[in-house]
Specification:
Layout: H1 3-20, H2 31-36, E1 48-53, E2 58-64, E3 69-73, E4 81-84, E5 92-93, E6 97-102, E7 105-110, E8 115-120
Antiparallel strand pairs: 1-2, 1-8, 2-3, 3-4, 5-6, 6-7, 7-8
Length: about 120
Amino acid sequence: MMPGKRVLPAFILVVGLAACSESKPPTPPTEQQIHSSDSAVATGEMGRHPYRCSDGEPLFVDFKDNGLQIDLRPSNSGLPMTLTAPAQGLQYVGETATATFKGSQLTVVEGDGRTRTCEREGTR
């Protein structure tokens, strides 16, 4: 029997099995992925999104560096607190705070132990 005749049935079997395998649905994008592709928002600032925190205060989040860096601002013109994440979907860490996204919710834990839960305002 020639080698090609043995390889062809095996190749057909592999291709057939691959065609029958179940493909996984894509995972929904993280907040970082959603905002890292922003080119403009209503405020005119690239990547800036308004949040409202559990204490009633606003929080403006600027997404930078393909979503791996955020600047948290108490007002549109306030001084930023910069936090970074090592990869998409991971916690942001700064000198005096950490931040974690879950859906449209942002939880900020500051160095003094103060925890604020903030919800994104408006729709994209």
